[in-house]
User: Fold Epithelial chloride channel-like protein from Labeo rohita.
Amino acid sequence: MLLSSTSTGIKLDGNGYVDVVIAISSRVSQDNTLIDKIKDMVTEGSLYLFEALDKKVYFKEATILVPPQWNSKDFTRARTESFEKARIRIDNPNPAYGDEPYTNQYGECGAEGEYIHFTPNFFQTNALTKPYRSKGRVLVHEWAHLRWGVYDEYSEKKPFYYSNGHIEATRCSKNIKGQFYEDSAETPCRTDPQTSLPTKDCKFFPNKYQNTRSSIMFLPSLDSGSRILRLQQAATHFLQNIIEDQSNVGMVTFSSDASTLSFLTTIDSDTTRERLIALLPKTAAGSTHMCKGLSLSLEVLKKDDGDVIGDEIFFLTDGEATDDLNSCVPNAINSGAIIHTIALGDKADKALREMADKTVTSHAAQADVPPIIVKTRMDQKFSDGTKPMIVFAEVSQNYKPVINAEVWATLEPESGPAQMLQLLDNGAGVVEMNPSKPLVSPESLITGSFRRTATGESFEVILKSTTPPNFPPNRITDLNADIQEDIVLLSWTAPGEDLDHGTAKSYKIKWSLDFKMLQSNFSNAHEVNISGISPQEAGSVEQRSFHLSFPIQNSTTLYFVVQSEDKENVKSQISNIAQASKIIPHPEPTQKTEARKRKIEALKGAYAHSNRILVRGLTSQQKVTSASLKASWVLAKHNKPFTDAEVFKEMMVTVLSVV
Assistant:
């Protein structure tokens, strides 16, 4: 058993990535062809990655974890892998994205993602891979999100923009040539009269034959043993890759009896890791007394602070207990420790699952309703107070975010009262994530009233001085700009005095005609006079409008940034750069307009003339019909032939009176 906290590690062995786990969800029905397609994707992706990064890295080793209910003589027992810890997952579609692959990312650019999500249907069709040319290139595209924390270099929100008076597609690099069409049949794009940019149905189609470089993040389709051995391998994997630095780790082994391999040891170097690995047992003997192992592991964990609340046990076993687990599992559950169980066999005692379920996970109240899951993590394990620590909480149901939930984080120090921190999903400090994926039919969330508790990770804060750190206002990341006539409109979420708490002292708004200049030389950019404007409380929506010192010409593109400052004159990082263009649709030439008016008048006249002819024709016909009917009535009234002089006279008078 390994006693510590966990996070999944992928590492480089030489130039090759190893410990890459691709896990298939237990909700996916068995399909052995899916395994072959995964292998093909990784092989293609490895070759593409190797070429794209100048032969520097490739996929050296990947493990496919299949659900326990899948059966085949070709499968071997899992070691330490699990679906929840896998960085590449294959599961039913996320209702928000359908079968579109995506990477779940919390942090800003440069921070590693959480996991890549593929669906079984993604591997069964080629429709979703057309922009990439192969599934291997899709893998590399998503791998860049996961491993390096980069973002896509295209935009669903702003697919087109103005540059030096020309319409450009958002792409990388700008040297990629292509055409604007609404579909592959080359239907010309229409223009939005409000922005003079192509409408939302317009797409950029790169020219098929061209010699240029393309970013992986834009368009990568352009060229440019025995059970003891498995337990030992699992423990080695944990110690080498999963256990975080500065964690305290102890090891206990058990068979007919239990013994301590190592008391709690701080992981402070690779040497320490290798020393612990060397202590792992090499042979197996005796029976499997799990209760003895559990009891001794709890005693080892108590050695640091006297209790085990929040401590974690990773219980690795073949799952077949010699003793009665029911005699010790209740005590383990009530201890407050979090117990992860990994059974390397299909005969695992049910008490192992109960122990893990009650200390680690939660289940749905109804079998047909997906459970609401809460996951937490910290952005760092150690802080000296110079950098703020961020608490993340993800509340979801069937991969869809549960919004407007009331979420509180309780931070418990070694001494002193616990600190309560409310986590908000109102957009304050929001990070612009990957472009939105294609919309699919909405699926309603069935939540109702619920309560969930998740035990987070431990972390350590050792301040360099006794003076509390003074953090700057947090960086504004949602600045948006617009130009209406000669008025500039800006909006953003207000930062705080310290990060996202309190109220900042002031703002500084700057602009430039040159994006790169504003990005690299903020101090020399033009400043907007906003004296007298005071920031609002953190989290509020700021909306500011102003005139510049000159009339803004048509087709002009301006770039804006905002920086905030607190009462100690500590400045925030500059915001994201917002772009706005003044576009006034060109009126039609006067000569063309007059000709159009004349043509319309001529058409109106022709219509009126034809209508009059039609009306006259209808009126004459009506009179003839009426006279004929009245003449017939006169003949019928007298019951005499047409040759009778008196009757003929009366009939003619009647006809003439009508016509």
The chain has five domains: 1-153+215-224, 225-361, 366-464, 480-582, 591-658. The chain has eleven helices and 31 strands.
